[in-house]
Structure formats: C-alpha cells, structure tokens
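User: Second chain of the day. Same drill as before.
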Amino acid sequence: MATKTTNQKAWLFVIPVVLLVAFNAVIPLMTVVNYSVQETFGDNVFFWEGVKWFEQVLQSERFHAALGRQLVFTSIILLVEIPLGIAVALTMPRKGPWVSVCLVLMALPLLIPWNVVGSMWNIFALPETGLLGKGLNVLGFDYNFTRQPLAAWFTTILMDVWHWTSLVVLLAYAGLCSIPDAFYQAAKIDGAGRWAIFRFIQLPKMKRVLTIAILLRFMDSFMIYTEPFVLTGGGPGNTTTFLSIDLVKVALGQFDLGPAAAMSLIYFLIVLLVCWVFYTLMMKDEVE
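Assistant: Same format as last time:
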C-alpha cells in the first residue's frame, strides 16, 4: 500500500504571513498584557499590580454602562441590517445590465472612509441647516441630535444602517446567485410559493454567507468608534459613549494605561467569546 507524501513547501508561503501577523498583532497584544498587570509613572519604571486593574474594570459602573450601551447598539444593528440586507438582495436582478448598476450602487457606501461618513452625517443631521435635521423639524418633529439622547441614538443607528447594510446585501446576493436553477425548477413543478422558496431553498442555501455577515457585522458594530465619535463625540452626555469610545477616553484622555489595557483585554475576550457562540450556534447542524 502506497504511503501518502506531504509537501511541506507551502510553509514557505505561510511563514511570511505568520511573521507579519505576529509583528502587527501578537507583539502589540503582549504590550497590552504587560500594561494590564503593572503600573507605570513614566521613565520605563513599572510596578507589579497583578489582577488589580481587571477587578477595577469589572467592578466599575462606568464599564457596565458602556458595555450595556454597546450591547444594545449591536443588537439593534443586527436586527435591522440582516433582514434588510436579505430583503434588498432578494429584489436585485440576477441577469441583465442592471446587475452591474445595482452592485456598484451597493458598494458605494462601503468605499467611503469611516471618518468621512461621520462628518457627512454630522452635516446632514444638523437641526438648523442639515437636510435630515431641518426636514424632520419642518415636518413637526422636535429633532436635535446634539441635545436629545433619543435623536442621537436614532441618527447613529441610521448612519450605520446606511453605511453597512450594503455589506449584508452583497454577501446575501452572492449566496443567492450560487443557488442552482434546478432548485427553482423543482420548486416550480411542486407549486411552491415565494415564501416557501425563500424558507426552504434560499435561506438554507444562504446559511454560510449569512453566518459570515452576522459575524462581520457583530464585530464591526461592537467595535465601532470613528463614526459615532465624529458624529456625536459620545454625547449628549454619555448617551452614545460606546465601549470603544470609553476605552479611548480612559487610555488617552485620562492616561490610565493600566485600566485601559485591562479593559482592552476584557473587550477582546468578549468579542472573541460572542463570535464563537454565534458561529457554534449557526453551524451546529452543518453536515460535513
């Protein structure tokens, strides 16, 4: 019986990537770990503190409040963008010249830098001069996102939906285009309606791409920083001070490197844990 030989030459292409990842991710992570268990007053002098900063962060009401706001924001984003992205993808044409037009239009918001998106929506939502803000006030709504917490949340969510729903649309559309016509022909012969086709053919076939979409949108929305910071600055008050914004305030505003490093690691572990749970739940029925 012939033995199978393994070609190890592929490692020659993998090693540069591993080294690059180690330089860009692992080494900075080790620096954060170092700061999370020590205290420093400058001049490269460190004092061992153990888990003091982790205990301080986990017991902090400020951290709990920021985490709560972050979880609420991410939950709303997922509940809005995933169904909306699927709905838009279902309406897009599969053939013809309009396919390219639709794909380009969907990709446009994703090409705009995050800080520009925040600036655009800041101008767009100004209550006195912005098209959105002035329009809502003319219609009789008392709208001012710089002073009203509910208006700030509404504007931040609307901005994220406009910016990132396109990603879900493109992924869902790719999943729909990969479904063979034979499935639709069989459904037509059986007399299946549009809802039955979506439920038993399209949705199951999109499961993998939707898993990717949910994971990407969860990670992006849970770590969002630039757009809401430029739009509201975390205000009014601390209304839109999400976990990432609060972390930057602790690290750069207060220069508390120890608590900030501990918060960063806790932040990282939360994202990692929730992503693992999402992936496990969505892929548990997959048959290899």
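The beta strands are 38-40, 46-48.

User: Great, on to the next one.
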